[in-house]
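Structure ticket #2291
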Amino acid sequence: MSNAIHPSTPSPFTGLEPAIVWAHFATICNIPHGSKNETRLLNHLKQWAEQRQLTTLIDAAGNLYIRKPASRGCENAPGVILQAHLDMVCQKNSNTDHDFERDPIRPIVRDGALVALDTTLGADNGIGVALALAALEDTTLVHGTLEALLTVDEEDGMGGANGLPANLLQGKYLINLDTEAWGEFYLGCAGGMDVYVNRESLAEAVPTGWQCHRIDVCGLRGGHSGININEGRGNAIKLLTRILYSLQNRFPLRLSQFVGGTARNALPREAYAIIALQPESTSALYDALAEWNKTLRTELRGADDGVQVAIRPASADKVMPQIDHEIWLNSLHAAPHGVKRMSVSLPGVIETSNNLGMIDLKPSAGSCNFMTRSNLDTACEALADEIVSLWRLSGTTAKKAGYYPGWTPNTASPLLALCQQVYEKAFDAKAETQVIHAGLECGIIGAKYPNLDIISFGPTIHNPHAPGESVEIDTVAKSWQLLGAILKATASIK
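Resolution: structure written out below.
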């Protein structure tokens, strides 16, 4: 498949405004840039900047830094840093033939939004990158010294932000462009941590005469494991675990495979298991799954109406030992997923949660991943410790990794006050302030640069981290208008 849009295919970006922003996003869509696969896009943007005589640097972590001089007469104004991440979450529907390492994203315009129907769009955070690049390119903007920090590996562990050197950035203000709700300024975010679980087994042969079947849970919406965690959407891994746990109490069965989820920070949309059981139990198995299909559709009505339980014949040579089979199903069934606690000090804000995001069980070994989040770093670690303790009860290896701090809100931020004034003047309305239950890089960057004044905003993005991700077109134009107005306002500060 070609890496370029076919010349006979009308571009979905034609006529979109502001053209300067959408042109950059079109380029980003055309160059694969999943986590740890950003090199091609990184080199393209570095070359683009150097062609415009802008100062560039790629640091040891792989982040791209670009510096643009201040507008004439604004040399003494405080510098502004525009920050976004280059990588995207790569999710696709199972019936979609798309290679995220090779193929471009192919969006369409629908109902006032740019949307990728069967894959993620990468508006998270490609639109933020596009806004920063447009600001670097536009010679009509008025601003002080402008820096762009385009980080790598944000979606897979915050590797770029964690590796950022502490002597690179020079500006006073940092505007993070990774917010996904227009009309809101974010001034705080959750921190996070992963728990990785691994267990080895001694594979056994499928019992003589037993038959194998594959059970699928699919059709779920998925979504962002922090932003959407409180919406009652289904987790395919937890749902299939629940089904298998119930089935094993009805008739003997053995587990051969259990696979689900493809990203630690996305709600798993699909999972499947291959089981073996006695032929005389087949009819009861099919009847039970038909009932589970009805049950889950009832329970998830309005949240995940597309949920489906399916079964078909399968083949397998090996199964997991009975003891390991029981340890996995019992522990997965007991393991937490979802909201742990809502914030008391910030009404309506999720404080602590976790996502069981990926599982890969085979007859001889298995692994799964949990991602915990919290606005309180101590609560994040406490929940991770609970998960580790659960698995250690069975002698299963469970380790914490990938900790990153939250971003503590500063309601007295001068930059926040300035942005609110600019917003109200530009749009004749007051902007909301929020603390997001997701991992922005602001906490990590702020820890390295404690004197930075940080704020975050951006256009409205729906269903990030899931196929069908979309961005509202008019909010991109508003974000561009607001960014230009904020830069002009900061340029007047002496």
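Closing remark: The first strand starts at residue 55 and ends at 58.
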